[in-house]
Amino acid sequence: MPIHNADIAMIFEQIADLLEIQDDNPFRIRAYRNAARTLNGLGKDARALLEQGEDLTKLPGIGKDLAAKIGEIVSTGRCRTLQKLQEQSSPGLTDLLKIPGLGPKRVRALYDELDIHTPEQLYRATRDGRIHTLPGFGEKTELHILKNIESYVQKDQRIKLALAAQYAEPLVEYLQMADGVKHVIIAGSYRRCRETVGDLDILVTAGTDSPVMDHLIHYDEVNEVVSKGGTRATVILRSGLQVDIRVVEQQCLGAALHYFTGAKSHNIEIRKLAQKRKLKINEYGVFKGKERVAGDTEESVYNAVDLPYIPPELRENRGEIEAARSGLLPKLVEHSDLKGDLHAHTTATDGHNTLKEMALAAREQGLQYLAITEHSKHLTVAHGLDQTRLLQQVEKIEELNNELKGITLLKGIEVDILEDGRLDLADNVLDKLDLVIGAVHSLFHLSRANQTNRILKAMDHPHFTILAHPTGRLLQDRDPYDVDMNKIIRKARERGCFLELNAHPQRLDLLDTYCMMARDEGVLVSINSDAHSTQDFDNLRYGIGQARRGWLEKGDILNTRPLPELRKLLGRTM
DNA sequence: GCCGTTTTCGGCCCGACTGTTTTCAGTCG
Which CATH class, in words, describes the domain spanning A335-570? Predict the structure, then answer.
C-alpha cells in the first residue's frame, strides 16, 4: 500500500490532536498542522519527491525533524512519535475532538476524571448525567454534548458547491430585504470555489442598528439557532447546512471580506506580513497602533502589506503570496473567455435534448461552437453509438450547420477506452470526426500500472484528442481510480493532446493540483460541461472556478480559442 | 517544530460567543 500525502497529513493531524490534549507547546502543535496542510496542497506525492532526491525541508513549514518523519512514514508506513503518543493516552481521543463543543481541554478532563476515551463511553456518561459534575462542565454543556454526539454519529459531511449554491442564493436574497443592509456576500470556501463546502460564511454590511440578525433567525429555513450576538450568529438550516453570519459596518467591508474568505492559512500568512510592518490586521481593518490605515476594500488590505490583490480562488497558502510578491500572479481565466464547449450529449444517447435544442442553448450562453460527443457502443447503458448511428449523426450535424447561424456544431465522440487501451470504434469512423474524446467508463479497479498503461496506450492512438474526466472520481461517491497523472500529463504533451476539466459539479475532474501540473507541462485544458440537457451549460461556471483554483489563465484553456485556431489545434482542417 | 528585512533565539494571527464563574477559560472560525 503506497503512502500518499493525505496519509502523512492525517498522521500529523493525529499527532497534533494528541499533543493538544496533552497541553503541549501550542506552536509545536501548529507546526504539525501547518505541515499537514502543506502536504495536502502539494501537487506531487512526497514519496515521489523523496525518490527523486528532493530536499523536503524546502517545502513551507517542513524542517529537518518533520522531513525525517515524512521519510520514516514513507518507508515504514508508521510513525513512532504517533505510536508513543497513542500509548501514553488512547487513540480514540482524537475522535472525541471531532464532536462539536469538545476541545482539547474538555477531552483531557473527560479522560482524566471519568476515564472516557471513546464517543460511545461519552454518550453513556452524558445519558447518566455524570458529565455536569466535572468542574467547568455545567448542565447546559452536558445537554449540548448529548445533542452533538447524536448528530456526530450521523455526521453530515461537506456538501458539493452546486448544492450549496441552491441554499445560499435564496438566503442572500432574503437577507438583502432586511432594513439597513447594504451588501450580502457569501465568503468562505464558497467564494474560493472549493469543490465542496462545510458551511456557508455570509458577510453582511449594515448599520449598527440594523435588525438583520433578528431577520435571519426568522428565515423559514432556519431549524436551529446555535449562537446569536450583535455582530455574529450561527444557525443550522433544515437541510443540516450550517450558516455563519457576520455583520460589519460598510467601511470594514474589505477587511471583513478578506478575513471571512480565508483560507485560514492564507490569512495567517498575510497577518504575519502585517506584523513585520508593525501593522495589525483584523476583520475591521488594518491598524497602525490605534490608527486605521486600510480595510475599505480587499485590495487596500493587500496593498498595506505591499502585495497586489490576490483573487479568492488562489488563497490557499500554496505559493500565491510568493507569486504576488514577485509579480507572478496568473491572470485567471474568466467565464467570458470561453468560446465553446467540447463535450455534450443529445437524445441520440443518454441526453435529454435534441441536437438543435442543444445548439441553440449553447448559442444562448454566448458560445460559438459546441462539440457533440455521444457515448460509444461499449457503454450500452447509455445507448452508445455504433458506427452506423454515429455516421448518421455526423450527417445530421452537417445539415444543421448549414441551417444554424452564430453557432457551429463539431462532430465528436466520447469513445470508451477498452481494457487493453484500444478505442471502442474503428479508425475509419473516427477519421471522419473533428475530435475524439477518450474516456474510461469501466474497470475502475485496475492496478495503478495497468490503469495508467491502458490510458497511455489509448492516448497513443492517432485520432485521440482529449482525455475525458481524467481521474474518474465522483465527488463524495466514487474515489478516483489509481492512475499516475504525472505520466498521463507528460504523454499529453508528447502527443499534442489535451486534458478535460469536466465541469459537472459532481466531477470537477481535473483536480486543481493537476491543473497546475498540466500548466507547468504546457498541456492545454478543455473546460467542458458534459451537458446532458440544455440547462447543464450553467455548470461551466463550476469548471471555471476549478480552473481558477488551478491557477489557469485564458491561454492555458483549449476552448478559449476562436474556432479557426481551435481546428488547427485539433489537427483537423475539415 | 519552524523560521529569519529584529536571522540560530525568541518569537509564532486575531476576535466573538457561550457557559460557568464573578473575571475568564474554552471553543470556534
Answer: alpha beta
